[in-house]
C-alpha cells in the first residue's frame, strides 16, 4: 500500500509539472514563431492541452497495474510493470518520456481488459486499485488493491465472470455503488466484450443491440474517446458527433468525455443538430407519420426537381427553335432549344446536388455560346466567360429551367399542394397546409411556423440542394427510435465517416420505432453492418430485471432478455389506496438512503404528484426528480418509484414499451405503486 501510495504521489507531482510545462510552452511558443499564423495554431493546440491538463478533476490517477513476465529478471523486457489510468502521465526530468501511467486507450491497455485465466497474454499479475469515493479538490485516497495471478489462477471469490475468472470484488463494488451525480466513466471496469466494441477499427461502423443497462451508452462514449486518441488528426476538429434522445440525457452524459480529457466532441440531439428554425407548430400524429415515412425521400426529390423544366421554356423569346439569345458586342449568339434541352437532361442524369446542377447547366450553356463565338470571331478569354456567365439572358434562362430555391420555399410549396402519386389522398390531406403561393419571394417563407417533422424534411431538402459537411464519426444513441427520414439525416452527415449505432428494439417508443436492425441500418446508409447483442446488465438488480422481462414477449420484437450481473437491490410492488399519499411515503423512506430518487408517472399525473410532494421535494433538492414517463430514456436513478403502471401503458400507442423503459431505470431499488390492476404481463413476475 505504501509503495502504491508513493507511486500515486509521484504521478500527481508529474501531472502538476506537465500542466505547468504546457502553460510555459504557450509563452515560449508565442515568441518562437516567425509567422503569427503558426504561433496561433501552436498556441491553440497548447492552450487546449493546458486546459485538458488543468481540467483534471483530481480523482485517482490510475486504476490498475499489469506485471508482465516472471518479475525477477529486470533485464527481460517482458518483466515490466505498467500502471493504467484515464490519461497518460510522463515523468519529469531524467524520467521524461517514460510513462508513469499508460492511457487506458493505448494498445497495451487492451491486455488489462482482455487478459483472463484462459488467456493470460503474458500477464503475471493484474492489479485493480480501490479508491475512496472522491470529490473534486480532495486528494484521492487508495483504500486497497486486489491482485489476480493470471499465471497461476486459483478459484476466486464472488460470482463467476463471463471471461472465465471470478468477478473482481472491486468491480462488483463499483457496480453496486449508489449513483449520485451525472454518468461517470467506466475505464477502470470495462468488460472484455465492451472493450472489443470500444476498440473496433475507426473505419468500421457497428451496431449494438443491448438490453437496458448493458452499457450501450458507456460503450459509445468510450468508443468516441478511443477514436479521438487513435485518430486525433481526422476527428479532433469537430469531426465527432454524439447524438442522444433529448437534452436531459445529454446533460446526464456530458461530463463523461471531458473527464477522459476529451473536450471537443459535439454532443447534441438530432433536432438541435438539424434545426434550421425553432419548432413553432405541432403535427397531428397522422401528419407526422406521413412526414417521417421513408417514401418522403423520393417525394421530396420529385417535388424539388419538378422545378426543373425538361424543355427550356423560351426564357428569352427569340426566333422559332431558339430558346436563348446572348448579345455580345455587335453579335448575338443563339442556342436552340434542342441543344439546351440536351444540356439540362445531361446534368439531370448526372444527379449532382441541385445547386451544383444549376451551376453545371450555366457553365455548359456558356461553353456552347463560347464555341459559337469562337467559330465566328476567334478565342474568348476567361474574363469573357465570366461576364457571359453573369449576363442577364443566361441568368434568366437558368431561372426558367433550373430556378434557385431554398429548402423552405420548396417545402412550403410542396405542403400547400402535396400532389405526389406515392401518397394516397388521405395522406395528402393529412399533411396539406396552406402556404405562400408558388413564386412568392423567399421572404414570404420566413413567417411559416414549422413542425418538428418539417425540420427533418427541410434537412432532407437542404441535403438535396447542397451536400452538408459531414463528421468523421457519429455515435447515435437510442437509434431504434429514429424515423426513416431521421436516419437519412444522420446518414448524410456520415457519408464519408463511420457510425456507432446503439439501441434496444424493446425500448422503441416512437410511432416509427424500428422493429429490426437490418432495415434501420440500411436507412442509416450502413446496410450489412454487423449487430452485436449485449445481455449482461450492469444497472438493475436481478428482481427488477425479472419484472421488466415479463413485458418482453408482448413488445413484438425479437431481442434476448437481459441477465443481471448485480446481486444487491430491492423490488417492492404494492397495491395502495391513495397514490399521492403512498408516493409521498415511499419517497420519504427512499430519501433516508443514499443516492438519487426518481418518481416516474404518466404525464398528466406528474403535476399532482409534484404538488403532493411539495415540501419534501424542496427538502430533497436535486436528489429527487419527478418525471413523466416520456422523459427518462437513457437515464438511471438509485431509487425509482413508479406510479400506476397501467396509466403509463395506456397513455400512448407503444405504452408497454414505455413501461419497459420506465421499469428499467433503477440501480438499487424499485417501488411500484398501483391502484388500478397491474398490466397482466407484470402480475406473474412482480412479487419477489
Ligand atoms: N463495465 C462497466 N463497469 C461499471 N459500470 C458499468 C459498466 N458498463 C456499464 N456500466 C454502468 O451501467 C449503467 C448502465 O449503462 P448505460 O447507461 O451505458 O446502459 P445502456 O445500455 O445505455 O442503458 P439504456 O438502454 O437503459 O439506455 C451505467 O451506470 C454505467 O456506468
Can you walk me through this structure?
The protein is an alpha/beta fold. Among the domains are: 1-187, no CATH class; 308-401, no CATH class; 540-682, Rossmann fold. It is built from 27 helices and 21 strands. Strands 3-4-2-1-5-6 form a 6-stranded mixed β-sheet, with helices on both faces. Strands 9-8-12-13-7-14 form a 6-stranded parallel β-sheet, with helices on both faces. Helix 12 crosses helix 19. The longest helix has 31 residues, at 2-32. The chain is globular, with a radius of gyration of 31 Å. The two termini are 42 Å apart. The structure holds adenosine-5'-triphosphate. One of its GO terms (molecular function) is DNA binding. ATP binds at residues 210-217.
Amino acid at each position: 500500500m505504501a509503495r502504491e501510495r508513493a507511486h500515486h504521489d509521484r504521478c500527481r507531482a508529474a501531472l502538476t509539472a506537465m500542466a505547468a510545462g504546457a502553460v510555459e510552452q504557450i509563452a515560449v511558443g508565442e515568441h518562437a514563431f516567425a509567422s503569427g499564423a503558426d504561433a496561433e495554431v501552436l498556441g491553440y493546440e497548447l492552450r487546449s492541452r493546458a486546459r485538458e491538463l488543468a481540467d483534471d478533476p483530481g480523482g485517482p490517477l490510475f486504476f490498475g497495474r499489469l506485471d508482465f513476465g516472471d518479475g525477477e529478471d529486470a533485464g527481460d523486457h517482458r518483466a515490466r510493470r505498467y500502471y493504467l489510468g484515464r490519461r497518460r502521465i510522463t515523468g519529469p526530468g531524467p524520467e521524461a518520456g517514460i510513462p508513469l501511467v499508460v492511457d487506458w486507450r493505448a494498445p497495451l491497455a487492451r491486455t488489462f481488459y482482455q487478459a483472463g485465466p484462459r488467456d493470460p497474454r503474458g500477464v503475471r499479475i493484474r492489479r485493480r486499485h480501490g479508491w475512496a469515493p472522491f470529490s473534486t479538490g480532495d486528494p484521492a485516497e487508495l483504500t486497497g488493491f486486489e491482485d489476480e495471478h493470471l499465471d497461476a489462477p486459483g478459484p476466486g471469490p464472488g460470482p463467476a465472470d463471463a471471461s472465465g475468472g471470478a468477478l473482481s470484488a472491486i468491480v462488483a463494488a463499483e457496480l453496486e455503488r449508489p449513483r449520485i451525480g451525472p454518468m461517470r466513466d467506466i475505464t477502470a471496469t470495462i468488460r472484455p466484450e465492451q472493450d472489443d466494441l470500444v476498440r473496433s477499427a475507426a473505419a468500421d461502423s457497428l451496431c449494438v443491440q443491448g438490453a437496458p443497462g448493458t452499457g450501450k451508452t458507456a460503450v459509445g462514449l468510450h468508443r468516441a474517446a478511443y477514436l479521438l486518441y487513435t485518430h486525433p488528426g481526422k476527428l479532433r476538429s469537430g469531426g465527432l458527433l454524439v447524438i442522444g434522445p433529448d437534452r436531459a440525457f445529454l446533460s446526464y452524459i456530458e461530463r463523461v468525455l471531458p473527464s477522459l480529457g476529451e473536450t471537443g466532441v459535439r454532443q447534441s440531439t438530432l433536432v438541435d443538430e438539424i434545426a434550421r428554425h425553432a419548432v413553432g407548430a405541432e403535427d397531428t400524429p397522422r401528419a407526422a407519420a406521413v412526414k417521417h415515412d421513408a417514401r418522403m425521400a423520393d417525394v421530396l426529390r420529385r417535388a424539388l426537381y419538378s422545378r426543373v423544366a425538361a424543355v427550356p421554356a423560351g426564357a428569352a423569346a427569340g426566333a422559332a427553335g431558339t430558346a436563348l439569345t446572348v448579345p455580345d458586342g455587335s453579335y448575338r449568339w443563339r442556342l436552340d432549344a434542342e441543344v439546351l434541352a440536351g444540356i439540362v437532361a445531361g446534368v439531370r442524369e448526372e444527379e449532382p446536388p441541385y445547386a451544383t446542377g444549376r451551376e453545371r447547366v450555366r457553365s455548359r450553356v456558356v461553353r456552347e455560346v463560347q464555341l459559337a463565338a469562337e467559330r465566328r470571331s476567334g478565342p474568348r478569354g476567361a474574363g469573357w466567360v465570366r461576364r457571359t456567365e453573369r449576363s442577364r439572358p443566361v441568368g434568366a434562362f437558368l431561372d426558367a429551367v433550373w430556378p434557385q430555391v431554398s429548402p423552405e420555399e420548396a417545402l412550403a410549396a410542396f405542403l400547400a399542394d402535396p400532389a405526389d402519386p406515392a401518397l394516397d389522398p388521405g395522406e395528402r390531406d393529412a399533411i396539406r397546409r396552406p402556404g405562400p403561393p408558388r413564386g412568392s419571394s423567399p421572404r414570404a417563407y420566413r413567417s411559416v411556423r414549422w413542425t418538428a417533422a418539417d425540420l427533418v424534411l427541410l434537412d432532407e431538402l437542404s441535403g438535396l440542394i447542397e451536400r452538408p459537411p459531414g463528421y468523421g464519426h457519429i455515435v447515435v444513441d437510442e437509434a431504434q427510435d429514429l424515423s426513416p427520414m431521421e436516419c437519412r439525416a444522420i446518414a448524410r452527415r456520415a457519408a464519408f465517416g463511420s457510425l456507432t449505432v446503439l439501441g434496444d428494439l424493446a425500448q422503441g417508443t416512437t410511432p416509427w420505432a424500428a422493429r429490426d436492425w437490418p432495415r434501420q441500418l440500411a436507412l442509416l446508409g450502413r446496410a450489412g453492418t454487423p449487430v452485436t447483442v449485449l445481455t449482461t446488465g450492469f444497472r438493475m438488480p436481478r428482481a427488477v430485471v425479472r419484472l421488466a422481462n415479463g413485458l418482453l414477449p408482448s413488445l413484438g420484437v425479437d431481442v434476448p432478455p437481459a441477465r443481471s450481473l448485480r446481486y444487491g437491490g430491492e423490488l417492492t410492488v404494492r397495491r395502495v389506496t391513495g397514490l399521492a399519499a403512498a408516493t409521498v411515503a415511499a419517497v420519504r423512506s427512499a430519501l433516508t438512503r443514499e443516492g438519487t430518487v426518481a418518481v416516474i408517472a404518466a404525464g398528466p399525473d406528474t403535476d399532482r404528484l409534484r404538488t403532493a410532494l411539495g415540501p419534501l421535494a424542496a427538502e430533497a433538492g436535486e436528489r429527487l426528480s419527478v418525471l413523466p414517463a416520456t422523459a427518462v430514456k437513457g437515464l438511471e436513478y438509485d431509487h425509482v418509484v413508479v406510479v400506476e403502471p397501467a396509466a403509463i401503458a395506456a397513455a400512448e400507442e407503444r405504452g408497454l414499451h414505455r413501461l419497459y423503459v420506465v421499469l428499467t431505470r433503477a440501480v438499487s431499488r424499485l417501488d411500484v405503486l398501483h391502484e388500478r390492476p397491474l398490466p397482466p404481463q407484470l402480475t406473474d413476475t412482480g412479487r419477489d
